[in-house]
Design goal:
The protein is of the alpha+beta class and about 130 residues long. About 15% of the residues lie in helices and about 25% in strands. It is built from one helix and seven strands; from the N terminus they run αβββββββ. The strands form two sheets. The protein has a four-stranded antiparallel beta sheet with strand order 2-1-3-6, with no helix packed on it. A three-stranded antiparallel beta sheet has the order 5-4-7, with no helix packed on it. The N and C termini lie far apart (about 55 Å).
């Protein structure tokens, strides 16, 4: 029984490690490519510079992208009842004004009205 538990624990640890290693933590610079199921934002136009990825909503973006966003890509997964549209806000997404609404599969290389104005985002079932 103890041997089974050790094998099970080792298997779980290996699987958890594989999941952590394979999870994307940065957007691909210059390409606009964003991992499936993620929303990505870059500090420069045309998907350049530092980038961030999110699988869910975020009410407070990290400081390097906070009011520094210039291009965006939504690779959300569409399906019945699955929120796949991303709304970018100038403040906490429950209080701020909406800058952009990005549909699944949509990429925006630059938008003058939304440039350097994002602070949070949320996933929704439409715009």
């Amino acid at each position: 029984m103890k041997m089974r538990m050790k094998v099970l624990a080792a298997s779980v640890a290996a699987l958890a490690g594989a999941l952590v290693v394979s999870a994307p933590n940065a957007a691909s610079a210059g390409t606009g490519n964003c991992a499936r199921g993620y929303f990505c934002a870059w500090v420069d136009a045309n998907y350049d510079g530092a980038g961030a990825t999110w699988a869910g909503s975020d009410s407070i973006w990290p400081s390097f992208i906070w009011n520094e966003d210039s291009s965006w890509s939504n690779n959300g997964i569409q399906g019945p009842g699955v929120p796949a549209w991303v709304r970018v806000y100038s403040l906490n997404f429950q209080q701020g004004s909406q800058n952009l609404c990005i549909g699944p599969g949509q990429k925006i290389s630059y938008n003058a009205g939304a440039n350097d104005n994002g602070q949070s985002h949320g996933w929704y079932s439409g715009c």
